[in-house]
Structures are given as C-alpha cells and as structure tokens.
Amino acid sequence: MIINHPLLGPRDAQEFTYLGDAALIDRPDALSFPSTEAALDAFHDYLYLRDNPAGEHRELWFHEQGDRSWLVVTRNTVTHEITKVELARDVARAKGRSK
Amino acid sequence: MRYSGFRVIAEALTGHKGWKPAWRDPEPQASYDYIIVGGGGHGLATAYYLAKEFKQARIAVLEKGYLGGGNVGRNTTIIRSNYLLDGNEPFYEFSLKLWEGLEQDFNYNAMVSQRGIINLYHTDAQRDAYTRRGNAMILHGADAELLNRDQVRAMYPFLNFDNARFPIKGALMQRRGGTVRHDAVAWGYARGADQRGVDLIQNCEVIGIRTEGGRVTGVETTRGFIGAKKVGVAVAGSSSKVMSHVNMRLPMESHVLQAFVSEGLKPLIDGVMTYGAGHFYVSQSDKGGLVFGGDIDGYNSYAQRGNMPVVEDVAEGGMSLMPMIGRARLLRSWGGIMDMSMDGSPIIDRTHIDGLYFNGGWCYGGFKATPASGWCFAHLLATDKPHPTATAYRFDRFRKGLMIDEKGQGAQPNLH
Fold first, then answer.
1. Is the separation of the CB atoms in B253 and B267 below 8 Å?
2. B377 near B357, Cβ under 8 Å?
3. Which residue of B has its CA nearest to A58?
4. CA nearest to B199, candidates B177, B226, B178, B175
5. Which of A2, A24, A48 should be substituted to probe chain B, the one whose Cβ sees the most B Cβ atoms within 10 Å?
6. How many domains, in total, are found in chain A?
7. Domains in chain B with CATH codes
C-alpha cells in the first residue's frame, strides 16, 4: 500500500506503524463524568470497543521511519484503497483539541 | 453414509458409483429451536455437539457461502495446548483431548497427526519463560518437555543453531501437538451434524437479527426470515459485521493473516516448529509442501489477501531459521480474516439480548480450538451456563480488568 503523505508525498506503508481507528483521537475527559462508574464505562468503550467496519475506515498511522507524524488515513478495508490522508494534528485541532 | 475399509474396496470394484453426497442440501424451515450463524469449523462443531452431546433438536446452521469456506479452509492446521494462563490452558487442553478422539467420534478421517510441536528458545530469559509455561501446562494436565540444544539438534540437524544473534539453545516441546487435515474437520462435523438431523443451509447470509422486547425471535437472511428460539453467532472474521445488526460494538478488529505453501519437497520436517526470534511457524504437509506463516499484516482488513511486506518478513524468518529453504519456491499464499480481540483471547458468551449468543475473537488461534469451541458453545446454548473450561471467555472481562493477555501487549489487537 502507498500512503500519500500530505507533506512528503507518496510513501510505502512499510515506513508506517498502525495504531487503529481514528476515533482513538477522541479520548474522553475523565473529569467530565458525574461518577467514577460512568467514567469507567466511557473509558472501557473508548479503549476496548471498535466499529470495525467492512468498507471505509478512518485510521491512525504513524510515520515511524519518516517524519514521525501521525496521519489519519481513510482506507477501504475491503479493497485496501486509500482515498484520503490528513495530518492527525489537523484533524484533532479541527475538533478543538490542544487549544 | 458410513465409511469403512470394506466400503472402499467394494466401491473400487464397482467403479466408485455408489458414493453419495455426505450431507443433505435442505430448504430452510420456517423456524428452529437453534440457529447457528456460520458454517465454518466452530459453527459446524457447535451444531454437531448440540445434537450429539446435548440431545437438542430442530437445529440449523446458516452459511453465507459454502461449508468450511472461511478460516477452517485457510489455516496452517496446527493443534496444540501450550498456553500459559489459567483462563486459556484448561480450554485448549480440553480441545486437544477432543482432537485425540475426534476421528472415532465422528467416524471420519481427519488425519489427526500428533507429530509434536516445538517452540525454539534463543536466550536464557526465553528458556525461563518456557520453563514456566511448560510447568503451567503440566499443572493443567497437558504434556510439556524442555529440550536442550542437543535434543533439538538430533531432531532437526539442519537448523541455524550457531546464528550469531539468535543461536538456538533449546525448545519447549509438546509431543501431543501436531496437525490435522483442516477441511476434513469441517466435513466430518458437517456430516455428523447432518446425520443427526441438523439442517445445513448454504448460500444463506444473515442480513439482520430480529428481536422483540429484548429477546431474539429469528434472523433475516438472503433466503427470507427464519424464526429461532436461540441464535448462536460463530462467524469469526466477520463478527463485527454480524453483531452490528443488533448495534453491538465488539472488543475486536478484523485483520488479515497470510499463510504460505512451498513446492513439494522430500521429507524434511516431521513435526511443527516455531521460531523464537521472529514470528515464523512451519510444518510439512503429507504432500511435501512446507506450510508456514508469521505475523498478521497489522491493519484492519476484510480483504482475504495481504500485502508484500509481510511476505518478505515471513520469508526472512524462514531463511533465518533454516537457510537452506532459500532455494525452494513458494507455491501458494493466501489470506484469512481474523477477529483480533483486545487481549488476544476469544469470547464465548451471552449478549445483552436474551437468546442471542456469541462465539468469536479467536485471533489467529481458532483452528486448534475448533472442537472445544463447538462443545463449549453448545454447552452455553443448551444449558445457558458456560462450560467449566470456558468461564473466563466473557465480554465483561475488559470492563472488570480480567483480561487474558498471553503476550501482555494490552489493548492493541495487531500486536497479539
């Protein structure tokens, strides 16, 4: 697979390591829950449960052998076709993270 | 149809005209007591044991393609029970015991061959870890032996013993481990289930699960609605797809695992071997091909085919272990889809919907588990209680912190 890095251009997927679903960006805020149990439930869902779709999947890849940037790659899990590559930083900032 | 030596001779003398299909091809009935979703090894074993051991009736197995066309038809056929943790080892040892009596049980030649499996170690720390694992196995009634370097050399003199980085120091051996003819397992269970009145319905994909007041009432399929009192899902690889019909998110990702066969070679490896310094495992089929594999590709996939970097990685593992295979040609490679769970261990459990049961998350160790998985799932379906060897395989183990993580990798499915 070739990942079209937004800064570096097309790079072999071998240069990257894979983390998983891009929803991992949305880590819950433990202090925002009314009780410890509710926070534990939310963190259980965040850490252990996945949508795991057959088809389009947004996922986190780390350019370990390159510029060490995190990318959000939109890839089809049935065909392996990659349709979109974004910097994870941009995705997270668009959601209001790291203000 | 029953098989015997006399039958083979009689058929040979009469031009093999008397053989008939080994199971029926029935139309689905309007409803059943039990519907098993998935006609692979685990689903067929479940139906077989439900009918035979738990004396249940009105059972159907629904398969979207053909029987045994998924992972039971695309694995590396290894059986073993060399696990460390309490939640796993009794279950896998139960499975190995079932393998040992399987052919007599369903009167079908599954070519169960207990040719022995060795896990090589290359460092003192690895030896200590295998000593501990071997002791855990023995405590649970399995067999284990720690071999030193000379004992391994006597068995496989051609290995790369004096590699500067990864010298082979010895191995953990389980003599009762081995290989099984994988397709015959599916066929044997299918035939045995069919003989006991189970309807095996092929080309019948489940596209919905109907519930009423928190209780399952049946499944929507490509061949219409089929009612059921209890539905058991055993579709490892596609678990998330099927369970999404009831809006369940599972603690797993689907990954592709590749396997390989070399051209036929003269007898070389009479057992099963795993490399301790890289992920590589190999056995030799009765036709002479080296059957081997390694890591999963490492990204979510439903494609049943992998990419080249893992082919290279596996080939490197093989070359580093047995340099002389470099001249052998690769005959075939293929991929299968694994439920990679969050701790590397499976789930056999109820769901939040009454009458809906789940069996999956086998990672890439599902084949060896086939008989016990079927037995334990049938136990759960018939009695509503988990089998004593499968009590740890629950959905809520992640919420309760009771993970069964053999490798200690944490919630990162592609590392298990």
1. no
2. yes
3. B300
4. B226
5. A48
6. 1
7. 21-77+182-250+343-415 (3.50.50.60), 111-178+253-341 (3.30.9.10)
CA torsion through residues B391, B395, B400, B401, sign: positive
How far is the C-alpha of B235 from the C-alpha of B243, rounded, in Å?
10
> Does any domain span residue A62?
yes
- Cβ atoms of B24 and B194 within 8 Å: the answer is yes
Give chain A's contact residues with B (Cβ, < 8 Å). Answer: 1, 12-14, 17-21, 40-41, 44-45, 47-54, 57, 59, 75, 77-80
**DSSP H or E segment with residue B154:** helix B149-155
pLDDT tens-digit profile, chain B (416 residues): 677 889 999 999 999 999 999 999 999 999 999 999 999 999 999 999 999 999 999 999 999 999 999 999 999 999 999 999 999 999 999 999 999 999 999 999 999 999 999 999 999 999 999 999 999 999 999 999 999 999 999 999 999 999 999 999 999 999 999 999 999 999 999 999 999 999 999 999 999 999 999 999 999 999 999 999 999 999 999 999 999 999 999 999 999 999 999 999 999 999 999 999 999 999 999 999 999 999 999 999 999 999 999 999 999 999 999 999 999 999 999 999 999 999 999 999 999 999 999 999 999 999 999 999 999 999 999 999 999 999 999 999 999 999 999 999 999 999 99
Q: Tell me whether residue A99 is in a domain.
A: no
**Does a structural domain hold residue A65?**
yes
Pick from A41, A52, A77: which is nearest to B252 by CB? A52
Q: Is residue A54 part of a domain?
A: yes
CATH number at residue A13: 3.30.2270.10
